[in-house]
Specification:
The structure holds two protein chains of two kinds. Chain A has two domains: 235 residues, P-loop containing nucleotide triphosphate hydrolases (Rossmann fold); 89 residues, Alpha-Beta Plaits. Chain A is 33% helix and 31% strand. By secondary structure, chain A is of the alpha/beta class. The N terminus of chain A is likely disordered. In chain A, helix 5 packs parallel to helix 6. Chain B has a single domain, classed as MetI-like fold, CATH 1.10.3720.10. Chain B is built from nine helices and no strands. In chain B, helix 8 packs antiparallel against helix 9. Classes of the chains: A alpha/beta, B mainly alpha. Chain A: Keywords: Amino-acid transport, ATP-binding, Cell membrane, Membrane, Nucleotide-binding, Translocase, Transport.
C-alpha cells in the first residue's frame, strides 16, 4: 500500500514551460510549485489555456519542463532518459477526455494493450484484464468494440486500461468533460472507489468546480500559467481568496443570484442589502435565519442557497435580502456565530 | 470468336494476374515501410527526421509524376540489370513495381495520418516505444484504409499492365492491341475488355469486403 498520506507522490518545484514563438516565447507555466499528496485525489482547476493540461503532461513526460523540477514517485522526470520515462509511465496511468481507445480492438484488447506494450501479456495477465473489466462494471461487454459503447462505458474502458499495469498514480485529463451529468457522477464515483480501494494517487484536471467538489481532497486553482490558490477542497470552498476561485465557485454552491435581482444590484446605495452567508462545518445546520428574526427582529428573505457535502463535511451558502439599516447588527451577530458573510450589494 | 483463341485469352489473363500480383506484392513490401516513415517523420513526429522525410517525399513525387509509358522505356537499362532481360512478362514487373511502390507509400501515409493523434498520445503515456506505437496502434488502426488503398493500387496496376506490351510484357492489354486492334478482331477486343472489367470488379469487391471486416470504427454490428 501507499506510504503515509502526508507524503507527496508528485512534486512540482518552480516549474516553467515556454513555447518558442515568433517574437519571443509564450509561457504556458510560470514557476509553478505544487505537492500532490500520495493516496489522495488532487484537482487542478482552470479555464482553457490556464496551463493545467501542460502541468498534467509534465508528470509522465509527455511534455518536458523548460525550467524547474518535477518528481514523480521519487524519480526526477525532468532529467529522465527515454528508457527511464517509459518505465515510469508504467507506474502512471492516464485517462483522457475523448477516451483515446483503439477502434479496432475490443474492450478486452484495449485493456490488454498496456500489458502488451510492457511485454508482460500472457495467461496470468488475461485474468487481470478480466478482473479490471469487471471492476469497472463492463463484464458483459468485454468483446464489444468501442463504437458499440456509450461515452460513459468508453471512459470505463479507459480507466480499466489505465489500471492494467497496476500504476500508483492516475492522471485524469478532463475525463468527464465529454459526458452528460448523470454519467459524470457514475465515472466520478468509480474514480473515488479506485482511490479508496487501491490507494491510488489521482491527479485530475478539470474546468468544472462540481468535479472538484464531488471527489477532490485537495485543489489547486490555475490562471495564466500560475497557481493562484491551493489547499484542501473544503477550505477553498469555505473561504476562497482569489477572484478566479470565486468565479469558479459561483454556480456550484447555490450562489447565483436570480436574474431579476442581479440586474438591479449596485455596489452602494440605500436599498435593501443582499448578503451572502457561508456556513461551514457544524454551523451549516444552525437555524440562523429564524434566530435573526426572533432575537434581533430582522426580517431576512431568502434569495437562494444550498447545503451540500464537501469531502464528507456539510457546507452551505445562503443569499438573503434584508433592510440596509439592519446590516451591521446582522453581520455582527453572524460573525459571533462563526459564519462568514459577504455583502454583494444593494438593490437600488 | 474461334475456339483456338480461348487458350490465348486464358494465357494472357494469367500473365496479367502474374504481373499485377508480383508487382503489387513487391510494391507493398517497398511502399508500406516507406509510407509509414513518411507519415511519422516530419518535424516533431514520432520518428522526427525532417530532412530525410523531405528527400524521400521528393523521390516519391518524382516517380509519381513520370507518365507510366515513359517510365517503362526510360528504365530499360535498370530493368535489364534487375530482371536479366528487358523484354517479357517478368521484365515488365520492374516498371510496374516502380510505379506501384510510391503510389502505395502515399496511400499508406494518408491512411496513417487519418489515425487520431490522441491514440499516439495514449500509447506514449503507456510507455510504448515508437516501434510499438507503429506496430500496435498506427498500423492496426489504419489497416482498413490501407486495404482500400491497396485495392485502388491493384486496380491501377491492372490498367498499367496493359501498357507494358511496349516492352513485350504481354498480358491482356497487349493481346487486345495486337489481335483486337492491329488484326482488327473486335471479338478479341471485347473479350479482353470484359475480362478486365471482371478482374477489376472482383478486386474492388474483395478489397471492400476485407476492409469492412477489419473496420470497427462504426457501430455496424447490429443485434449484439
Amino acid at each position: 500500500m501507499n506510504s503515509a498520506p502526508s507524503q507527496a507522490a508528485i512534486t512540482f518545484r518552480e516549474v516553467s514551460k515556454t513555447w518558442p514563438q515568433r517574437g519571443g516565447a509564450v509561457a504556458a507555466l510560470d514557476r509553478v510549485s505544487l505537492d500532490v499528496q500520495a493516496g489522495g485525489i488532487t484537482g487542478v482547476i482552470g479555464r482553457s489555456g490556464a496551463g493545467k493540461s501542460t502541468l498534467l503532461r509534465l508528470v509522465n513526460g509527455l511534455e518536458r519542463a523548460s525550467a524547474g523540477r518535477v518528481e514523480v514517485l521519487g524519480r526526477d522526470v525532468t532529467a529522465a532518459s527515454g528508457r527511464e520515462l517509459r518505465a515510469l509511465r508504467r507506474d502512471v496511468g492516464m485517462i483522457f477526455q475523448h477516451f483515446n481507445l483503439l477502434a479496432n480492438r475490443t474492450v478486452r484488447g484495449n485493456v490488454a494493450l498496456p500489458l502488451e506494450i510492457a511485454g508482460v501479456a500472457g495467461p496470468e495477465t488475461d485474468r487481470r484484464v478480466g478482473r479490471l473489466i469487471d471492476l469497472v462494471g463492463l463484464g458483459a461487454l468485454a468483446d464489444r468494440y468501442p463504437a458499440q459503447l456509450s461515452g460513459g462505458q468508453k471512459q470505463r474502458v479507459g480507466i480499466a486500461r489505465a489500471l492494467a499495469t497496476e500504476p500508483k498514480v492516475l492522471l485524469s485529463d478532463e475525463a468527464t468533460s465529454a459526458l452528460d451529468p448523470e454519467t459524470t457522477q457514475a465515472v466520478l464515483a468509480l474514480l473515488r472507489d479506485i482511490n479508496r480501494e487501491l490507494g491510488l494517487t489521482i491527479l485530475l484536471i478539470t474546468h468544472e468546480m462540481a468535479v472538484v467538489r464531488d471527489i477532490c481532497h485537495h485543489v489547486a486553482v490555475m490562471e495564466a500559467g500560475r497557481i493562484v490558490e491551493t489547499g484542501e477542497t473544503y477550505d477553498i470552498f469555505a473561504n476562497p481568496q482569489d477572484p478566479v476561485t470565486r468565479s469558479f465557485l459561483s454556480g456550484v454552491t447555490g450562489t447565483v443570484l436570480p436574474g431579476f435581482i442581479a440586474r438591479r444590484i449596485t455596489p452602494d446605495g440605500t436599498g435593501p442589502a443582499i448578503l451572502r452567508i457561508t456556513f461551514a462545518g457544524d454551523s451549516a445546520t444552525h437555524p440562523v435565519l429564524s434566530r435573526l428574526g426572533a432575537e434581533l427582529g430582522i426580517d431576512a428573505s431568502i434569495l437562494g442557497g444550498a447545503i451540500e457535502e464537501i469531502d464528507g463535511r456539510p457546507f452551505g451558502n445562503l443569499t438573503v435580502q434584508m433592510p440596509a439599516e439592519a446590516l451591521p447588527r446582522a453581520q455582527a451577530y453572524l460573525h459571533a456565530h462563526d459564519l462568514r458573510t459577504e455583502v454583494l450589494g444593494h438593490v437600488g | 470468336m474461334s475456339a483456338n483463341l480461348i487458350p490465348i485469352l486464358w494465357e494472357a489473363t494469367l500473365q496479367t494476374i502474374y504481373m499485377v500480383v508480383v508487382s503489387g506484392l513487391i510494391g507493398t513490401v517497398l511502399g508500406l515501410p516507406l509510407g509509414v516513415f513518411l507519415a511519422t517523420s516530419k518535424r516533431g513526429e514520432l520518428l522526427s527526421a525532417p530532412a530525410v522525410n523531405a528527400a524521400l517525399g521528393l523521390v516519391v513525387n518524382a516517380l509519381r509524376s513520370i507518365p507510366f509509358i515513359i517510365l517503362v522505356v526510360a528504365i530499360i537499362p535498370f530493368t535489364r540489370m534487375i530482371a536479366g532481360t528487358s523484354i517479357g512478362t517478368t521484365a515488365a514487373i520492374v516498371p510496374l513495381t516502380l510505379a506501384a511502390a510510391p503510389f502505395i507509400a502515399r496511400i499508406v501515409e494518408t491512411a496513417i495520418r487519418e489515425v487520431d493523434g490522441g491514440l499516439i498520445e495514449a500509447a506514449r503515456a503507456m510507455g510504448a516505444t515508437p516501434g510499438q506505437i507503429i506496430s500496435k496502434v498506427l498500423l492496426p488502426e489504419a489497416l482498413p484504409g490501407i486495404v482500400l488503398g491497396l485495392t485502388l493500387a491493384i486496380v491501377s496496376l491492372i490498367g498499367y499492365s496493359a501498357m507494358v506490351g511496349a516492352v513485350g510484357g504481354e498480358g491482356l492489354g497487349d493481346l487486345g492491341i495486337r489481335y483486337g486492334y492491329q488484326r482488327f478482331m473486335p471479338d478479341v477486343m471485347l473479350a479482353v475488355v470484359v475480362i478486365l472489367i471482371v478482374l477489376v470488379q472482383a478486386v474492388q469487391s474483395l478489397g471492400e469486403w476485407i476492409a469492412r471486416r477489419l473496420d470497427h470504427r462504426a457501430a455496424k454490428d447490429r443485434g449484439l
